[in-house]
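Lab channel / #folding
Pinned by the channel admin:
"Please post every new chain as: sequence first, then the structure tokens as a reply. Keep commentary short and put observations after the output so the thread stays searchable."

First post following the new format, from NK:
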Amino acid sequence: MQIVFTGPVVINVKNGETVHQRVLLIYGRAGPRNEKFQSNITVEHHATNFPSTTWPVFNSHFKCLVHLDPGSNNIKLILDKHGSKSPTTILQVNYIPLLQNPPLHLAILVAKDSKEVIDAPKEKDRSGENKLDSVIAKLRCAGYLWQAFTAEQMSRNEFGRRVFRLEEEWIEDTLSNQNPGLSQTAKVHIIRSSYTLEQILDPDIAQQNPNRKDDKKDLYSMFMDGLKEYGIPFNNQCYVAGLILDSHYDNSPDMKFIRGHAALGGGGGNIQLGIFGSHLTHAWPRHLEEVVGCFQDDTITDETILSNDAGESGTWWKCCNIGIGAFLHEVGHCLGAPHAPSGIMARGFNNLNRTFTVKEPNNPSPIKPSDENGAHWHRGGIIRFRYHPCFRSLSDPPLSIELKNLSADFWRLNEFILIKSPSGVSLIEFFVEESLRDYKEYVQYKNHQTEVRLKISEVIEKYGDNRIIKLNVVSKNQTENSLDNLRRFLKESKMTLPIYGEIIKSPYLGKLDERLTEFRVFFNKFTSNENKPVKLNRMVVKYGYYINGITFFWSDGTQLSVGKDRGNKKEFGFMGENEKITELKVNSGWYIDGFEIKTNLGRCSEWFGKHGGNDHILKLPESEMIGLYGTSDDLVNTLGLIYKLK
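Reply from TO:
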């Protein structure tokens, strides 16, 4: 019976599609559809210097990583037929790098007295694959794999091929092992640390050391110090994937963990940073031609010299998965993605190989996209990326400076929780006992929602009357705010007072310390004998980097001081009995960083304090603001509104 060969058919990319990454992941079918069949696809680039590459076909399935040049690319996909003319498909793809977006920077931290080598098996030592130049190539290749993976994930989630860009420069390229020459390729910054090898390898700061000492400067802080000392481009807002070169697996009986390694992601100030050690880098590809081989290398890890990280790196292809994938997990944190129930932000990186290859060691079946299991970004992370500045597309409306730092706030309206977010709500996450249970998304621009109402009884019924329910709101400007315990808030937010009747407390801003006593300040105080109010007529605010203290003065000469009397002092006085506070703009993080007052007469105070956290506008038109509450010790720790619904 004659076998009918079919030419390559690309499934995940449309002919003429526009993308924004240098390396494009292609999945397709070729050859006889229902028979065991192995061959190769050769990828050729028309009118470019980038060399041809070859990718396996397994039972008619294939995956390729295709290099693109800026502009229009005509890609030939040629099926190796072992004989006569080979079936060929031409795919046209437009690559538009979005240079206006902030990039992800790649960086390697090198100890002051580093030997500039990584842990590697002896055969790779001999070939020089353990040296710094090789590690640079490996990190560059990993960066393009992250980019290809993320663009494909965004596309599958129907957000187009949005993706972060890598910082690039014109240098000798390493993305192919066939000497492609000079090219615009990912820049890798070498951060020469002021810390010595002994300090970086100190077992007391090793993340995997169960007896590590938390009072010593940690590796994350050391990396941060290195970036700050390096200067440009790390002196402005930036996103960094940082590899620690000098990580070392110590197999001595009293150690048996990796020194000089930490898997952490997040950031502070202008630097968002994800870091990882180099202990698994020996298994990474340096070039596109090595990707399939590295993800299929079943060589047993020699645990006398190499780490079997998490007990899941017993073979080299698994080392490649965890090394590149767990590092991507930390980069995810750097880009704002939290831990998730599944995917890369869980431990789904153990399946990262399945994204890039159709064959897996000891697996007789081809790996289709539906078989990739944990190799995905969770939908919550995808929605965060959709509005991230690194993922902006040409069609996105301009970012509003006024809305850049404004966070969502929660308000109780009897039967509803009202969520107000001036920049628009993108995602509401529902946690039960700290586990993400559900989410609602608001991602269509035509349905841009600045307010969402949740019926309290429906939330309680769905997620459990006796459980801790947390609501986390992600706004389109990337800020997040949480209502940490819905049931507790409902219990404590309402009270009945003489004269006022039923009043409501908003959720507090800042970080609650249960040891501190709550203060309450009412703008109108009433005596027990008469209903004539005593008016709040001025406030004196003491501040530095945070709000240190506030003194409130009433018209009867009484006063209340909260916090400490130190720092700058400024006063705001009210004009007559009819002026009252109608709006507070507050900046807060762990503490109350600063605030300003607006009144019903249109007057606005100076800004008291600084801007170290997120901004909040405390104003609810369908209510009357009647007071403030909060906690304080050396600072004003928390602050919230007391209001009455109209």
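NK: The two ends are 83 Å apart (CA to CA).
TO: also worth noting, The chain has ten helices and 39 strands.
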